[in-house]
């Protein structure tokens, strides 16, 4: 079985940027990311394994699932932040289950978009802890205009009123 074609933001219209569900046999079992006094980022067209571990020790880890390929069913992201930051961007068409333990830190969900309630959508379980650090899980709409586009639209609206 072959993978669906890769999604590149320049090749497709922004209205179809979202995670792609791929067959279960193509999903790797384990992967991870470690940031030790550094920065680690997973973004773009990548495959989320069934078990993904992220560790930030005085560093930053960014996990962007907005255009990732995910398998059907449940995937697990396990995080550990020690005096560091971990940010996970989740698109609204994935279900999430978050259970974290902060110790002198924060483990938060920030909803910038409403998430799906469809039981057919893949589930992402996010567990772990933040010790004197932070873990932020943000539900974002990848198709929403950014701050620059909002500023440009506002400026064009004002300019149109002046004419």
Draw up the topology in text.
Blueprint: E1 20-21, E2 30-36, E3 39-42, E4 51-57, E5 60-64, E6 69-70, E7 74-82, E8 85-90, E9 95-103, E10 106-111, E11 123-131, E12 134-139, H1 147-162
Parallel strand pairs: 1-6, 2-4, 3-5, 4-7, 5-8, 7-11, 8-12, 9-11, 10-12
Describe the model:
- The longest helix has 16 residues, at 147-162.
- The chain has one domain (16-162).
- The protein has one helix spanning 147-162, and strands at 20-21, 30-36, 39-42, 51-57, 60-64, 69-70, 74-82, 85-90, 95-103, 106-111, 123-131, 134-139.
- The strands form three sheets. It has a five-stranded parallel β-sheet, with no helix packed on it. It has a five-stranded parallel β-sheet with strand order 3-5-8-12-10, with no helix packed on it.
- It is globular and about 55 Å long.
- It is mainly β.
- Helix content is 10%, strand content 44%.
- Mean pLDDT is 87; it is low at 7-15.
Task: Explain briefly what this protein structure is.
This protein has 163 residues and is mainly beta.
The chain-level mean pLDDT equals 87
Q: What's the main sheet like? A: 5 strands, parallel
Strand order in the largest sheet: 2-4-7-11-9
Number of strands: 12
Query: What structural class do helix, strand and pairing data support?
Result: mainly beta
**Terminal residue distance:** 57 Å
Helix content: under 10%
Shape field: globular
**What is Rg?**
18 Å
Number of domains: 1
**Unreliable residue stretches:** 7-15
Task: Provide tags for this entry.
163 residues, mainly beta, 5-stranded parallel beta sheet, 44% strand
């Amino acid at each position: 079985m072959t993978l669906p074609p890769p999604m590149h933001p320049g090749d497709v219209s922004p209205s179809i940027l979202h995670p792609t569900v791929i067959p279960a046999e193509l999903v790797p079992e384990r992967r991870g990311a470690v940031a030790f006094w550094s920065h680690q980022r997973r973004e773009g067209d990548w495959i989320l394994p069934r078990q993904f571990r992220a560790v930030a020790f005085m560093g930053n880890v960014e996990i962007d699932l907005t255009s990732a390929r995910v398998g059907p069913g449940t995937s697990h992201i396990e995080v550990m932040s020690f005096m560091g930051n971990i940010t996970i961007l989740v698109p609204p068409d994935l279900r999430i289950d978050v259970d974290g333990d902060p110790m002198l830190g924060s483990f938060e969900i920030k909803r910038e978009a409403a998430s799906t309630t469809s039981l057919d959508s893949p589930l992402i379980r996010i567990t772990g802890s933040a010790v004197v650090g932070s873990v932020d899980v943000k539900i974002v709409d990848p198709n929403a205009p950014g701050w620059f586009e909002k500023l440009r639209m506002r400026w064009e609206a004002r300019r149109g009123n002046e004419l």
